[in-house]
């Protein structure tokens, strides 16, 4: 992998044994795989820990094509604390980014124990490594679900009060932040960050990696692209009479590559931080777009007519929310660069490439 880095500095650091590994749990997943690429581009050596329970091993081929070599892969359950301990004892790990978790709101309502076991136990397992190795910075995948339905102002900042989410999935993120808070309270030298993601969409422009849902997609964009590819007869938009710009729900859609870059900035920040912290940072674009606007943008940018219909409101759906991103700019010097047009184009190119559509 070494000589594919363009930066001479990276080669120098590697030769002198100064380039350290970043452990990326859930690194074969949607956001994890894109973050692996951005870590590599920034000169880190990402090591993926994933047991492929919600991803496909073909992701490693796609990553290899982008990186020029196969990344190091640890095919293990993040709940296997003994394995983690042994790996970290034998390798120099300069950071941990923890993506590995289940993420489907509806499924978490049907099977809450599955979510509590994996999302909470997995977090506790990896945090034990941080507690035992306090020099290792840690980044956690949190979510805007911790805000619930914002009252009044639809733009939420990190100071906006959290509300207890209604779904078990959302609650695992709420609780995850609290667990990290409690750990930090007990060990004030730890360097920790929770990134509250808004709605990641899009794919890598190389078409080598992208969102690869197992079974029926829970998120909007893969449902759109799969409908365009003929896998579903039509797309249902849940609700058309909400008090929003066009009656459909409003979200802050962020290109997954921008989101991946935010992780590199988060890690850079923590590695350089002199004092312990548990920083909480919104990662979005700062703009809300309605579901219908995304559908229309997809149709326009890709010159495709989508078959869609309006269905009933979905219980538990937040009506409108988008991020205040001032703190991400201030703390990390990061802001999103890509547009929804980029995201819908990249997502469709990715879908076409995996379905061999011209
Ligand atoms: N995608 C979103 O819309 C979104 C929004 C906010 C937050 N998040 C959070 O970001 C993280 C990543 O999301 P994603 O969209 O990339 O999900 P994903 O399902 O695509 O990726 C998660 C990866 O973790 C792996 N994994 C899960 N449990 C594991 C375990 N116990 N041991 C080893 N590997 C395990 C899966 O196999 C998968 O490859 C999750 O924590 C999710 O809750 C996602």
- Roughly how many Å apart are the termini? 32 Å
Q: What's the CATH first level?
A: Alpha Beta
Shape: globular
Which CATH-level-2 architecture? 3-Layer(aba) Sandwich
* Alpha-beta classification: alpha/beta
Task: Output the strand order for the largest sheet.
Answer: 3-2-1-4-5-7-12
Number of strands: 15
**Bound compounds:** nicotinamide-adenine-dinucleotide
Point out poorly predicted stretches.
1-7
Helix content: 40-55%
What is the element string, with H for helices and E for strands?
HEHEHEHEHHEEHEEHEEEHEEHEEHH
Q: Which value, in Å, is the CA radius of gyration?
A: 20 Å
- Strand residue content: 15-25%
Give an account of the 3D structure.
It contains twelve helices and 15 strands. By secondary structure, it is α/β, with parallel strands linked by helices. It has one domain (2-355): NAD(P)-binding Rossmann-like Domain (Rossmann fold). The chain has a seven-stranded parallel β-sheet, sandwiched between helices. The protein has a two-stranded parallel ribbon with strand order 6-15. Helix 2 (30-41) runs parallel beside helix 3 (58-67), helix 2 crosses helix 9 and helix 10 crosses helix 12 (340-355). The longest helix is centred in the middle third of the chain and has 21 residues, at 112-132. The protein is globular and about 55 Å long. Residues 1-7 have low confidence and may be disordered. The structure holds nicotinamide-adenine-dinucleotide. Nicotinamide-adenine-dinucleotide binds next to helix 2, helix 6, strand 5 and strand 8.
